[in-house]
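Technical note accompanying the year-one report. For the benefit of new consortium partners, we illustrate the data format agreed upon in the data management plan: each record pairs a sequence with a structure-token string. No post-processing was applied to the example shown here.
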Amino acid sequence: MRPPRRLALLAALLAAVAASGVAAARRAAPGPDGHTAPFVRRVLASSGGRWVEHRALGLHVHAPAGSRAARVLPALAAQAVAARDADLRLLGATIDTTHLELLALDTREAMRPFTGGTPGGWAESAASAVLFVTNDSARAPLRHELMHVLSWQRWGTPAGHWISEGLAMHAVGRCHGRDVHAMAAALAAEGRLVPLAELPRRFDVQGEAGAAMYVQAGSFVRHVLDTYGTARLRALWQGGLRSAPLALGADVPTLERAWRARVDAAKTSEPWAAMWAEVRSSGCE
């Protein structure tokens, strides 16, 4: 029996997505010494080139000698291994020890020479590298940033940054104990969720507005994953919202109604301002 055209097209899309992910992973393979990527070399040349390193199951974790991060390097490496493995499971990928470089700094200001700003974390998928801040008040954003590297290498370049950040936000799990749907519900209560069709165009990464966008994207990605599974989320990653009828079998208005029902069910009395204050001071992990 010949399959319906919609199912045949969906199968073709999923196959194309899988192939592109394999190609991206091959393109992103690091050199044999692990320090060949210009980004990694540039970071390690800072601080007078005085860095210490701890290796664990394919991960090379670095910190400037004498820094707070250097004192907790073995613990950071253990956290990074757990984060990598959890992210790979979420992607439906085999747990492996692919070489990754993690570079830890003590302050956001120390990020500026390498990122042009002061984010808590920065991912360079082509370099198989993550640069991040960890100190007494901010935990290392390992699951979030490693998810950027692993997802881009295995699934290919996403259709938009909104879905990349949404997947990374979902990967974190609970943000200071809060479910991402509950955080989205706090935004909904204040009328701060943007229409789903406008999310790709209006997506922002800066300040409070950016944090709200991350939460909205993370909540939607979690809804898609819970409802449709990993393979179809991957198809949406490749095709974007315009591919939703083919990738998910539902148009954007239908998706939005179902997702908003999930958000409404997670109603919370905590205001967004309280959530944002904690995220701003110490990140989400």
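Partners are asked to follow this layout when depositing records. Residues 220 and 260 are 9 Å apart (CA to CA).
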